[in-house]
Amino acid sequence: MTFLQGLLSNISTRTRLLGNASNTAQSSGAHLQALSSACATLMERGGEASQIMTAQRALTHYQQLAPEERLAFFSLLASDYAAEPSAIHSAYKAYCASEDNAALEQLFNACEPRRQDLLRRLNLCPGGTFELVKMRADLLKQLRHTPELAALNSDFSHLFNSWFNRGFLVLESIDWNTPAAVLEKLIQYEAVHAISDWRDLRRRLDPDDRRCYAFFHPATGDEPLIFVEVALCKGIPDNVQRILEHGEEVPLEVADTAVFYSISNCQAGLKGVSFGNFLIKQVVQELSRELPQLKNFVTLSPVPGFADWLAEQRASQSLVLSETLGTFLQDHEATELPAAAHKEFMRLAAYYLTEAKHRSGQPLNPVARFHLGNGASLHRLNWLGDTSSKGLQQAHGLMVNYLYQLERIEQNHEAYTRNHSVVCANDIRRLANQAGQYFNSEANA
Description:
Blueprint: H1 3-18, H2 20-25, H3 28-42, H4 48-63, H5 67-80, H6 85-98, H7 101-111, H8 114-122, H9 128-143, H10 150-163, E1 170-173, H11 180-189, H12 198-205, E2 210-216, E3 226-233, H13 240-245, E4 257-265, H14 276-290, E5 296-299, E6 301-302, H15 306-315, H16 323-330, H17 339-354, H18 366-374, E7 377-382, H19 389-395, E8 399-403, H20 409-419, H21 426-434, H22 441-444
Parallel strand pairs: 4-5
Antiparallel strand pairs: 1-2, 2-3, 3-4, 6-8, 7-8
Helix pairs in contact: 1-4, 3-4, 3-5, 6-7, 8-10, 9-10, 17-21
């Protein structure tokens, strides 16, 4: 932040405080009109001071809008701040005539929607980056029902992938002594295994055999972008309850395995901006330096969508299952299964993770896509790895370990990138191959 930006930040903060009474008196329609006017002013040429103040004013008005008015604002950006077709045609003709770099630059500039420049200018004011992240989160809520806003979403995505690239990210280790403002956000943003209270959070951060790392960005202050929780263990664990309940600590000199048991993206507005692959690889490097005796770097991952997939396959009569397994799958609280039906279940789990794919060729399971795309391999299936209500509902308690082997990460990543190959342990591949007997070929014909 420049000195001028800092000074204006203080001025604008006091201005907002003084203006709160009058702001609340304004109608929502007035805020939308004022926002539109501020955006138009922002696109005019002006000095840095006036642009910063105008951007601040625009974002303040945006914060006052009701959801339906935010939709109206997004529609305004999509229509009135698009690229100008006549300018594109003119620039293209000029490039075809000369084919020089100057004409190519003019063509690029003509093709860029004006709203990208507007978003850059809104980003000038202090705190603007995080406000724009929240703005995109609002946009994403509207996108499903308003597909004509897809181009605007692409503009946000384009800018955010540049603003939040790896060079700007700061890795921080988080422990129980980290400022409470940050710790509170971990409780808020935890997306895999809910943190019930401060005591629960302390169990995850304070012991010597626990670690937590997060990426931050200079422009978003103490707002984490993504964080990972790590348990240091002896051997590869197969049950997350034992990690979350945390009994006896594992001495650091005994620990040989780092377990990534929870990875949470914090900002909905940064959907599509990849942080996790950088985070895990850097954390592996950090832990390897701190604890060179560590031999295994694994996850203990949920399998969201597995229960739904099984239900869909049964509903379409694609699966022919034993009565015992069928009864088990209907009860999302069941945790007991005879040996024969257990084999059925594990074979289907292996098939789901290795063979059930989108038309694009990528695995259906989002967690599998993430870790396999990062260069991990599918290492082990864990029956009743998560017996919480959430774990039983989404995957009948199944959890899996993905293995990060430093010497094979790039090779696995390339295999997945080129043809979506699922690198997995031999016993998992064998189970997946055995699952073919449960599929009804006539239903799939």
